Amino acid sequence: MAAEVIYGSELAQSMRDEMKEEVQGLRANGIIPGLTVVLIGEDPASKSYVLGKQRASEYVGVESDLITLPESTTEEELLTLISELNSKESVHGILVQLPLPSHINEQKVIETISPDKDVDGFHPINIGRMMTGKDTFFPCTPYGIIQMLKSKDIEIEGKHAVIIGRSNIVGKPVGQLLLNENATVTYCHSRTNGMEQFIAQADILIVAVGIEHFINGDNIKDGAVVIDVGVNRTKEGKLTGDVEFESAKEKASYITPVPKGVGPMTITMLLHNTIKSAKIHNG
Ligand code: GUN
User: Fold this and answer.
1) Same domain, 95 and 154
2) Looking at the 3D structure of the chain, how many domains does it have?
């Protein structure tokens, strides 16, 4: 079987077009969705992500403010800034770009952002809401993956979803969202014994380890749905995923590419969360 490719780039574009229309309606009623992104330091990958967020915000009509601060910013200064943004009415979403310099406690920062403006969905209150099956701001990459599956009417209920990777940003929450959709979920990670046996059982395989071509077609089940969250650079400087695409495509029923796969959906769901927040704050 040769898999159908799920282009997140196409779904992202159509969702952004819908959002653009929705934002026009909100603006006509005096509601301007506002996102503030805080970037600390000079990390080139972070700068590039932030630029992508700025461009996409502009496209859909979300007012996006970028605050760039030097690497030497203290934790106290950052927490004070977040408190100010928490009480600023025009700000509906606050995103502090991670990773932060090592002298700043990331968890403290996440917990200082008001849960009502936490468009990343990283605050423990929002994670708790997600875990108890409530509606909230869901973490953007996992939420984007669910949208990609739904866009192809891929059945989740009753399926065995195997997640490779257990990060707080992707692995753990995507497993939770799939569980909320009634999948049976297995988490694999660097300490898992006999990972191959789990991979071979996966109806839905989510790979988020950050290792180039960690999975290939030999490992996966015939007809599996393969979602590649990896963003790696080859020696030649090309972007590539955690899955060896060509061999996996021969076995899978659906597969996501890198680039043009999951990546564009992350920013799209960030905009979705910001618009949702603007509507709640003006509800
Ligand atoms: N760094 C890499 N991905 C993300 C993300 O989704 N949100 C934030 N805040 N930082 C990131």
Assistant:
1) no
2) 2
Distance CA 171, CA 232 (A): 17
**Which stretches within the chain are classed as H helix?**
8-28, 44-60, 75-86, 106-112, 124-131, 140-151, 171-180, 195-199, 245-251, 263-281
Please identify which of the residues 17, 20, 43, 53 carries the catalytic annotation: 53
Any domain includes 83:
yes
Residue 2 lies in a domain: no
Of 114, 147, 182, which residue sits at a domain end?
Answer: 114
Q: Is 167 annotated as a binding residue?
A: yes
| 283 annotated among ligand-binding-site residues | no
9 annotated to bind ligand = no
Mutate to test the pocket of ligand 1, among 43, 95, 106 (most ligand atoms within 8 A of CB): 95
**Do 110 and 48 reside in the same domain of the chain?**
yes
The answer, as to whether pTM is greater than 0.95, is yes
Please indicate whether residue 64, judged by its CB atom, sits closer than 6 Å to ligand 1.
no
Active site residue 135: no
- The kind and range of the H/E element at 160 are strand 160-164
> What's phi and psi for 69, nearest 5 deg?
-125, 155
Q: Tell me if 97 CB under 6 Å of ligand 1.
A: yes
How do the pLDDT tens digits run along the chain, 283 residues long? 799 999 999 999 999 999 999 999 999 999 999 999 999 999 999 999 999 999 999 999 999 999 999 999 999 999 999 999 999 999 999 999 999 999 999 999 999 999 999 999 999 999 999 999 999 999 999 999 999 999 999 999 999 999 999 999 999 999 999 999 999 999 999 999 999 999 999 999 999 999 999 999 999 999 999 999 999 999 999 999 999 999 999 999 999 999 999 999 999 999 999 999 999 999 8
The residue whose CA has the least distance to atom 8 of ligand 1 is 97
Same domain? For 188 and 150 the reply is yes
- The answer to whether residue 63 is domain-embedded is yes
Ligand 1 binding pocket includes 140 (Cβ within 6 Å): yes
The ipTM, to two decimals, is 0.97
In a domain, 13, yes or no: no
- Note down the domain range covering 155: 139-262
87, 188: one domain: no
